[in-house]
Amino acid sequence: MTTQGKTINITLKVWRQKGPGVKGKLETIEAKNISTDMSFLEMLDTINEGRIVQGKEPIEFDNDCREGICGMCGAVVNGIPHGPEKAMTLCQLHMRKFKNEDIIVVEPWRARAFPIIKDLVVDRSALDKIIQSGGFVSMVAGGAPDANAIPISQNIAEKAMDAAACIGCGACVAACPNASAMLFVSAKISQLALLPQGKPEAAQRAWNMVHAMDDCGFGNCTNEKECEAACPKEISIVNIARMNREFIKAGFASHVM
Ligand code: FES
After folding, report:
1. To test the ligand 1 pocket, which listed residue (61, 66, 124, 166) has its Cβ within 8 A of the most ligand atoms?
2. Pocket test for ligand 1, best of 61, 69, 124, 233 (most atoms within 8 A of CB)
3. Which residues contact residue 88 at a Cβ distance below 8 angstroms, ignoring those fewer than 6 apart?
4. Domain 7-117: homologous superfamily in CATH
5. 124-138+146-252 sits in which CATH class?
6. DSSP, residue by residue, 170-216
7. How far apart are CA 129 and CA 165, in angstroms?
8. Where are the beta strands (DSSP E) in the chain?
9. Cα gap 86→191, rounded to integer Å
10. How far apart are CA 126 and CA 245, in angstroms?
11. Model confidence at 234, in pLDDT bands (50, 70, 90)?
């Protein structure tokens, strides 16, 4: 049942941690008269405004677009990355999904490869390192070609677009009991491997990105499927199977090292 257009009182239990490597703990914060029309991040804004007036430290959290596009936001809400709504980022979650007197536990992404910077903010630069290792096409592509100059079947184009929907938020890592980044990496490999422009470097890309993922300290995939369930863009684990095929093929390619 939703509570649209009302106000609710909630109890937040928020992870507070002053900095990297410092011991943190859950802090209990009572929030009164929260409009159910607010987004989750607006609720945190409101709490922070009150805390600043009272001379208390605001709760640090990442955000940017607040439209489900940039992948900056993210926290584990009541044990679920991005909260209880399927296919939704934290910035698009609304307080109408909660009830009066609810207790809401908010924690950062927890993974060895995502060290906590402060409170709910984690360092996700490991994902950038993986992209830097091969998540691109290095040929000179020239100007934008006509849309129909390179024939690509609709089936392939749609699979590539579905993979390209990944916003790199890291929810897949946070959801996985092994803190694996395989859904993220496989989406980035797939979006290029499926298209003709990405094929010439497909083997080297898969080789480099999988090794970069291992070097960054992410765990392995044991088919838990928690990543797919938590992904706000509904990236399919079919991409992981494709990544594994690309990686095996790369192992047989003489030019890959
Ligand atoms: S703030 Fe950009 S996706 Fe949530």
Report:
1. 66
2. 69
3. 68, 82, 232
4. Beta-grasp domain (3.10.20.30)
5. mainly alpha
6. -HHHHH-TT-B-HHHHHHHHHHHHTSGGGSTTHHHHHHHHHHHHHHT
7. 19
8. 7-16, 25-35, 76-77, 80-81, 103-107, 116-118, 121-122
9. 23
10. 23
11. very high
Quick one: 164 exposed, middle or buried, by C-beta within 10 A (0-12, 13-18, 19+)?
middle
Tokens of 22: 């410092």
pLDDT in tens, 19-59: 999 999 999 999 999 999 999 999 999 999 999 999 999 99
Ligand 1 centroid distance, CA of 30 (Å): 25
Encoded tokens for 45: 């804004």
Pull the structure tokens for residue 149: 């100059």
Distance (Å, rounded) from C-alpha 176 to C-alpha 127?
Answer: 15
CA 64 to centroid of ligand 1, rounded, Å: 6
Domain ranges of the chain: 7-117, 124-138+146-252
Q: Is the CB of 72 under 6 A from ligand 1?
A: yes
Dist. CA 93 → ligand 1 center (Å): 11
Structural contact between residues 87 and 232, judged by C-beta atoms closer than 8 angstroms: yes
Q: Residues 66, 88: contact at Cβ < 8 Å? A: no
Q: CA-to-CA distance for 172 and 187, rounded, in angstroms?
A: 11
The number of the ligand 1 atom at minimal distance from the alpha carbon of 63 is 1
Whose tokens are 């003489």? That residue is 254
Residue with tokens 């970069």: 212
Q: Give pLDDT, residue 101.
A: 98
- Nearest ligand 1 atom to the CA of 65 is 2
Supply the pTM of this predicted model. Answer: 0.94
